[in-house]
Specification:
The complex is a heterodimer of chains A (about 300) and B (about 325).
Chain A lengths: L1 E3 L10 E3 L9 E2 L1 H17 L5 H27 L13 H7 L3 H18 L3 H5 L5 H34 L3 H7 L3 H25 L4 H23 L2 H4 L12 H11 L14 H23 L6
Antiparallel strand pairs in A: 1-2
Helix pairs in contact in A: 1-4, 1-6, 2-4, 2-6, 4-6, 4-8, 4-9, 6-7, 6-8, 8-9, 8-11, 8-12, 11-12
Chain B lengths: L5 E2 L6 H6 L7 E10 L2 E11 L3 E5 L6 H8 L7 E6 L2 E2 L4 H5 L2 E4 L11 H11 L4 H14 L15 H13 L5 E5 L7 H14 L5 E6 L2 H7 L2 E6 L2 E7 H4 L2 E8 L4 H10 L3 E5 L2 E5 L2 H14 L6 E6 L2 H8 L5
Parallel strand pairs in B: 4-9, 4-10, 7-8, 8-9
Antiparallel strand pairs in B: 2-3, 2-5, 5-6, 10-11, 12-14, 12-15, 13-14
Helix pairs in contact in B: 4-5, 4-6, 5-6
The chains are: A mainly alpha (about 300), B alpha/beta (about 325).
């Protein structure tokens, strides 16, 4: 660092030319770069370090999916001293279904995290770093999965803690619902990873956010309608494997397997032999297809 | 270490880089060929690039950008190999990339983020810890003259400011070599001068530069070495000064006495003209140079400058590429 003092100056002030300082500290490689991209994607998805408009959607959605928990706990609190059965509006299993509203969040955020990198041609800058296409996919999918998981899991925590506090005996409630402690995170993780992979895979196919968002919503709408037509009136005629075409409901079948150990009798997959296994296999196929698309799109280095 | 596996790398200190302790070439390109369907982008190119600043010169489509992609390990050569500081790019592209900075020609910055965020993020992507990346982003943006604007979104930047931000992201990881692809593209004359001034300072920081451009004036201004390619083949490489040839023209600045000097030189049998208050004399050999000196002394003229005019790199390129005789 050099000091530039004006000739004939009073000596009270000085201009410092900081120049250039080489960096010789610790330096990470692929892992550090992947983690950095993961953090940057999380910040972008949550609107952090961006204008307030970018923060509205994620936190409004978080509020919306938390409302049922708050209402449920509130009713439990109001009716705590009455000699009637405790009213329970929503169960932990049902609450995972409420989290499918986060599909809207994924349709909004996945394109925002993926598309600008290609549209604004940032990818060459990223891949000029110690980063491979696989690392990029892991960071982006990981970021969306983490947020969807957190947004699905936090309301469940509110519900669980609230129910525990308004119950007659918090300890009894806790010990009586120990299974929830692994079932909820498992079911929510299945949902979060699924939405994240599908959202990112579709977003990777275009550089326009609006197109990607519409395609995500469209995929879920079209498959659920098609599946509904194929399955027909399952409540009277029994379920059918056509229910597996419903991409939106697929993780909910697995949720039922996690919570109940089998397919829910009230689901359109009821009565299908090996329905749980079929649902798991379809889930893996959908995830695998999504990952193949993503790796294909970011296999930046030529072969 | 906070879940991140840091590799303590023993790096060359700045003084080593400045003095060139590692005497080998920075880049060794050996028989490099890259073919795309129907197009040969690089054709059996072999050249060693020393440390310092080097201009990679060629017309549009000559293969400059392809060479950058091969250097970064973003494309695989059809034949041949590239080494950066003795490391084969094909064997360890990650290590090579951790030593390089890259400034593409095209727009490549996220427009809705601030310069500080972007440069800091790219610092982290280069492997720096978050705190060090933020600190270096601040320092580098100050260095490129964006200290006042670093918290503004890049979308509101002028072309010159965006170019500076692109240079900052290339430097934030403290690279050993920075690849600059047309760094003065789209800049006005003042912005171009400022960018070239920044590039010429990089050598004093111990950072080598490989600057791809088709503007030979830029290379002549800031590069010590030059590699000229045309249609994927090497035209010539060497020190910039050694490639420039004497033209036989001598420029003399004698202030307001130019007309007087021209008359004196003509009387002495030399050919001379006055252009923009500068006298240009055709000199053939040392004898005529002595004659020029004597005429100035006899006329007792003030001599402010006397320089031998050299060919430009444009002329060297056109002649060596066989485009002119």
């Amino acid at each position: 660092m050099s000091t530039l003092a004006p000739p004939g100056g009073t000596g009270k002030g000085a201009v410092y030319d900081r120049g250039y300082r080489p960096y010789d500290g610790p330096r990470g490689r692929r892992g550090a770069a992947t983690y950095a991209l993961y953090k940057a994607s999380m910040r972008r998805a949550l609107g952090l370090r961006r204008s307030w408009r970018q923060k509205v959607a994620p936190f409004v959605l978080l509020g919306v999916v938390t409302i049922p928990a708050i209402v449920n706990v509130g009713i439990g609190y109001v009716t705590r001293d009455r000699l009637i059965d405790r009213i329970q509006i929503i169960t932990y299993r049902n609450y995972v279904g409420v989290s499918s509203a986060l599909l809207l969040f994924v349709a909004l955020v996945a394109p925002d995290v993926i598309c600008p990198d290609r549209r604004q041609r940032v990818l060459p800058l990223m891949f000029a770093r110690p980063l491979l296409g696989t690392d990029y996919v892991v960071a982006k999918v990981g970021a969306i999965t983490t947020i969807v998981f957190a947004f699905s899991f936090l309301p469940q925590v509110v519900l669980f803690v609230g129910n525990m506090l308004v119950s007659d005996s918090a300890l009894d409630y806790f010990t009586g619902h120990l299974d929830v402690l692994w079932k909820v995170p498992s079911a929510v993780a299945i949902l979060a990873l699924y939405y994240a992979v599908i959202g990112c895979a579709i977003a990777s196919l275009t550089d326009r956010r609006i197109v990607a968002g519409a395609a995500v919503i469209g995929l879920f709408l079209v498959t659920s309608i098609s599946s509904g037509i194929i399955v027909g009136d399952w409540q009277f005629e029994g379920g059918s494997a056509g229910a597996l075409l419903n991409v939106l409901a697929l993780p909910l079948y697995l949720r039922d397997v996690v919570f109940l150990g089998h397919i829910d009798p009230d689901s359109p997959l009821n009565g299908v032999n090996g329905g749980g296994l079929l649902a798991a296999a379809t889930y893996i196929v959908v995830l695998g297809t999504g990952m193949v698309i993503l790796w294909g799109r970011y296999r930046w280095v030529e072969r | 270490m906070r879940g991140v596996c840091f590799v303590r790398r023993i790096r060359r200190v700045a003084s080593d880089r400045l003095t060139g302790v590692d005497a080998g070439p920075l880049l060794r390109i050996d028989g490099l060929t890259k073919r795309y369907p129907g197009v040969t982008a690089l054709d059996d190119l072999s050249v060693d690039v020393p440390r310092g600043s080097t201009g990679l010169v060629g017309a549009n489509g000559a293969g400059k950008s392809t060479m950058f992609r091969l250097l970064l390990g973003l494309a695989h050569p059809t034949k041949g190999k590239v080494e950066v500081s003795g490391i084969d790019v094909a064997e360890d592209p990650i290590e090579v990339r951790s030593r390089l900075g890259y400034m593409p020609e095209h727009d490549c910055l996220p427009l809705d983020q601030t310069a500080a965020d972007v440069v800091s993020t790219f610092g982290e992507l280069s492997g720096l810890p978050a705190r060090a990346a933020r600190q270096r982003a601040s320092d580098i943006l100050d260095l490129v003259g964006l200290d006042e604007a670093r918290f503004r979104p890049i979308g509101g930047f002028s072309t010159g400011m965006r170019q500076r931000t692109k240079l900052a992201q290339a430097l934030v990881g403290d690279p050993e070599l920075v690849l600059l692809d047309e760094p003065t593209a789209g800049l006005d004359p003042l912005g171009r001068e400022e960018m070239l001034s920044l590039v010429s300072r990089l050598g004093s920081f111990g950072i080598s530069v490989l600057m791809a451009t088709h503007l030979l004036d830029d290379v002549q201004q800031v590069c010590e070495h030059v590699v000229m390619i045309d249609a994927g083949k090497l035209v010539v490489s060497g020190g910039t000064a050694s490639l420039l040839e004497r033209t036989g023209l001598v420029t003399v600045d004698v202030g307001r006495h130019g007309q007087e000097l021209v008359a004196g030189l003509v009387r002495a049998g030399l050919t001379a003209t006055l252009t923009d208050d500068l006298v240009e004399a055709t000199i053939d050999g040392d004898h005529q140079m002595d004659l020029l000196r004597d005429v100035i002394a006899d006329l007792e003229l003030p001599l402010f400058r006397l320089s031998t005019r050299l060919t430009s790199l444009d002329e060297v390129f056109l002649r060596r590429a066989g485009l002119v005789s």
